[in-house]
Amino acid sequence: MKQKRFILDEKEIPTHWFNMQAVMPNKPMPILNPATREALKPEDLYPIFCEECSKQELDQTNEWIPIPEAVREQYASYRSTPLVRAYELEKALGTPAHIYFKNESVSPSGSHKLNSALAQAYYAKMQGVTNITTETGAGQWGGSLSYAAQKFGLECAVYMVKSSFNQKPYRRSIMQTFGAAITPSPSMSTRAGKDLLTINPNDQGSLGCAISEAIELALSTPNCKYTLGSVLNHVSLHQTVIGLEAEKQMEMAGEYPDMVIACFGGGSNFSGIAFPFMRHNIQKGKKTRFIAAEPSACPKLTRGKFEYDFGDEAGLTPLLPMYTLGHSFKPATIHAGGLRYHGAGVILSQLMKDGFMEAQDFPQTETFKAGVLFARTEGIIPAPESCHAIAATIKEALKCKESGEAKTILFCLSGHGFVDMGSYDRYFTGEISDFNLSNEEIAKFIESADKLNK
Amino acid sequence: MKQKRFILDEKEIPTHWFNMQAVMPNKPMPILNPATREALKPEDLYPIFCEECSKQELDQTNEWIPIPEAVREQYASYRSTPLVRAYELEKALGTPAHIYFKNESVSPSGSHKLNSALAQAYYAKMQGVTNITTETGAGQWGGSLSYAAQKFGLECAVYMVKSSFNQKPYRRSIMQTFGAAITPSPSMSTRAGKDLLTINPNDQGSLGCAISEAIELALSTPNCKYTLGSVLNHVSLHQTVIGLEAEKQMEMAGEYPDMVIACFGGGSNFSGIAFPFMRHNIQKGKKTRFIAAEPSACPKLTRGKFEYDFGDEAGLTPLLPMYTLGHSFKPATIHAGGLRYHGAGVILSQLMKDGFMEAQDFPQTETFKAGVLFARTEGIIPAPESCHAIAATIKEALKCKESGEAKTILFCLSGHGFVDMGSYDRYFTGEISDFNLSNEEIAKFIESADKLNK
Fold first, then answer.
1. Which of A108, A322, A330, A332 has the maximum number of C-beta atoms within 10 A of its C-beta?
2. How far is CA B56 from the centre of its chain?
3. For the whole model, what pTM was predicted?
4. What does the DSSP 8-state code read for residue A250?
5. Residues in chain B closer than 8 A to A367 (CB atoms)
6. Phi, psi of B292 (to 5 degrees)
7. What is the H or E stretch that residue A68 is in?
8. Torsion angle of alpha carbons B166, B170, B173, B178, nearest 10°?
9. Which residues in chain A have their CB less than 8 angstroms from residue B69's CB?
10. What is the pLDDT of residues A219-235, one digit of tens each?
């Protein structure tokens, strides 16, 4: 019997995260205060984020950041996550490629998001914070933060986009089971929410509004900090535990990836699996390809523009140098809710600009088709977000079939789809459509960012 | 950092199942043909079940049954399942007990049921069968069989109790994603279904009717066999892979269980974790206690009677010597749908009668309370069925706290609750009630079995 799954001993769980910023040939451009256009310092972030996370956000020097022992102990309840050779998927495709996946779906919250939630909750606790808050759309991040808060004895308040609150009751229940307080957004608990509800009592909410409500709560509550599950540099940092483990596990399998593939929303999952391998391209001359798989309905890397833009729709955040579709971009309501974000993280955008990574976009019907094949061959029903990475993997594996090359492909399975079965139902009944964006539509949205760069 | 999870190398996945029948001091009484009262031979089962499973059902001789290599290869995609030391649950309870759980929720279908589904599908395929069929209530077994059929290239038809079909759409979607055809039962596809629907077009179905429909399909379709997910001896046999792994993993942890605990419906999960350890009580004089945790609403072991009874409501099966509440028993609609069965498997009933195991019953609110504590401490949201094992574990761990004894408790986490979040919702909103059965009610139901024993 050929070995299929590779798992590390608990003592081999990484002791440090890898800080990509420290090794980049071109450092990311500074994050700017939109009023003064001055580069942000860590202190500028302290009112909203924990101090430690704020420092990590702007650290361009230290290559290795120690993982606190208390966080590592929490990691040990689900890490190392398995690295799996997808023999049955290979067989179904008839490809000579060797396909591996890193299975992050085994975490308590069902996705990779917990890797950063535990770190952020821990740093908050250490700083004397008692309450943390965040927004959630699809619910993966909210579920992860709820669990992390529970582990470190913090109160957790999640603003959940009202349409998701109603459409994804299981996600809400998961957060409640982990002990968090969930408020549908917009709500009457903040000025931002009230303003919207007094104009339209039936407002179904948006991620932009939920962010505003969570930040307002953090700013107006003693000992309360805000947290974010993607886009930011310190989130990417925490996620590198994925790739660092995968590196050791690929060694166990006796292989090194020719391609590393992940889905791409704000970039946290992609960073996690890619950065530890990408450092070898920079430092050791390896030639691995890094492929971000994004939805055609939200193609920030394939069709966006690199410039300064706001991180949120309302324009409350600092200005970030990034690939963006414009902060006014309104993505279609695809089922991969976690990939519906207009911009890419700052580090990732610089790496994309400098040619260290590439991107491909996929219509959602193709991603569900890929997800069903994966479920039937490898036995894990993937989250709609993860289906994008699978679609890209299948595409590359079929190229190998044509060329006859036995390339090694590693992709990240970011989460499972057990609470997304409604989306699969709609795929089977043919109720899922693809969304084609014209160049004119995209150009119109990007204008909202263009204005900030004049 | 203390080691928390114990995982076996792939080569240590068991090569044989353990056949409890071979070592029992008192063999189970024969299964009888209800018309002739003669003991059943394997051939009598061939029209419905595969030949190999029929032989295993009545095998009282061979202690070790080889696991076919093709089944073992499929096991390797999720086995060994982790054995976990529940440090955080221990801490929350303040108990000196050492609590371990065997996590069967990591399988493709989310529960232990797949261990037998893969074996049954494999034997069917080897015999030249092309189609397999079954019934499902809660959906755990149907999902497992759907996946197993997919792996061995069989068509799979599942009759799903109509009320579940409508109330548990996610379970239905999981089966569909794995490629099965799902029919709400009663249906117009069988005589049994038609008879009911012509009387009452709104009949919401029952497990009894779904069994009848599946058996009718198997009998009337060329190359089609019926399968069952619990109760039967061959199902218990396949599940022993759980306990055999756990035995090696407990060795890795340097401990041996003073108590082994599992939830109890028909007995497949309990057999799986308990039998491999129970053989040491019989053969080596070990003194481990084996505790079956059943719902107060369906207390076959704690309040049932040992006698011959039918395995189904309609009286289509052979007569089984077992602890039963009577085949006419109508359990309340508790959320642990997988535990709503009137009888206990034949081997288990004999062992219970002979004092090798004990049973405790729990009201469902207590089990959900236990499940929430487990989710918050150990990070896995348990299936409502598994919550019964957790409730029993907590009860025993608190006894250790009182007595100051550091006993070692091992329980089986049979499945996760990601698709049962609706039940948790209702628990949180106080919509879940307990069901108290009077002695008179129970006696009335048991009469349906008493009549068969005169």
1. A322
2. 17
3. 0.95
4. H
5. none
6. -90, 130
7. none
8. -130
9. 1
10. 999 999 999 999 999 99
Q: What is the pLDDT of residue B142?
A: 97
* Of B417, B83, B380, residue with least CA distance to B260: B83
Instruction: Tell me the CATH number for domain B5-12+66-110+234-453.
Output: 3.40.50.1100
pLDDT reading at A364 higher than 90: yes
Mean pLDDT computed over A44-73: 97
Q: Which of A48, A55, A49, A30 is nearest to A40 (CA)?
A: A30
The strands making up B224-226's β-sheet, listed across from edge to edge, are B181-185, B155-161, B131-136, B224-226
> Averaged over A300-325, what is the pLDDT?
92
What's B451's DSSP letter? G
* pLDDT tops 80 at residue A414: yes
Nearest to A137 by CA among A195, A213, A197, A188: A213
| Position A204 confidence tier, pLDDT thresholds 50, 70, 90 | confident
B431-442 exposure pattern, b = at least 16 Cβ within 10 A, e = fewer: ebeeeebeeeeb
Is the CB of residue A90 less than 8 Å from the CB of residue A115? no
What pLDDT score was predicted for residue A265? 94
Least CB-CB distance to A4: which of B10, B106, B179?
Answer: B10
Task: Please tell me if residue B91 touches chain A, with a CB cutoff of 8 Å.
Answer: no
Report the C-alpha gap between B234 and B25 in whole angstroms.
Answer: 19
Q: What is the mean pLDDT of chain B?
A: 95
Residues of chain B short of pLDDT 50, as ranges, are none
CA separation, residue B393 to residues B112, B152, B408, B413 (Å): 19, 37, 10, 11
Q: Name the amino acid, one letter, at B226.
A: Y
For chain A, say whether B252 makes contact (Cβ under 8 Å). Answer: no
Chain A residue with CA closest to B424: the answer is A173
The confidence score (pLDDT) of residue B285 equals 96
Tabulate helix, strand, coil % of chain B (nearest 5): 45, 20, 35
**Is residue B114 within 8 Å of B87, Cβ to Cβ?**
no
| Cβ–Cβ contact B10 with A under 8 A | yes
Q: What is the tens place of the pLDDT at every residue in A88-114?
A: 999 999 999 999 999 999 999 999 999
Token digits of residue B244: 């055999």
0.90 surpassed by complex ipTM: yes
Q: Which residues in chain B are closer than 8 Å to A73, comparing Cβ atoms?
A: 1
- Which one-letter amino acid corresponds to residue B447? E
Query: How many CB atoms neighbour CB B270 within 10 A?
Result: 34
Rounded Cα distance between B234 and B19, Å, is 9
| Contact flag A418-B422 (C-beta cutoff 8 Å) | no
Q: Do the chains contact at A176 and B428, CB–CB below 8 Å?
A: yes
B379 Cβ under 8 Å from any chain A Cβ: yes
DSSP string for residues in B284-335: H----EEEEEEETTS-HHHH-EEEEEESSTTS-SPEEEEEES-TT------S
Question: Is the pLDDT at A206 greater than 90, yes or no?
Answer: no
Count CB pairs under 8 A between chains A and B.
115
Q: Would you tell me the crossing angle of helices B233-253 and B268-284 to the nearest 10 degrees?
A: 60
B274 and A CB contact within 8 Å:
no
What residues of B are in contact with residue A176 (Cβ under 8 Å)? Answer: 424-425, 428
CA A161 to chain centre: 18
Residue in chain A lying closest to B88 (CA): A151
The span from the CA of B92 to the CA of B90, in Å, is: 6
Q: Where do we find the tokens 């073992």?
A: B72
pLDDT in tens, A432-454: 999 889 999 999 999 999 999 98
At A101, list the tokens: 């996946």
Please say if the pLDDT value at position A312 is more than 90. Answer: no
Which H or E element spans position A209? helix A207-220
The burial of B205, by beta-carbon neighbours within 10 Å (0-12 exposed, 13-18 middle, 19 or more buried), is given as buried
For residue A187, cis peptide bond before it (omega within 30 degrees of 0): no
Neighbours of B55 (CB within 10 A): 19
d(CA A106, CA B415): 13
Q: What tokens appear for A383 in the block?
A: 């989250």
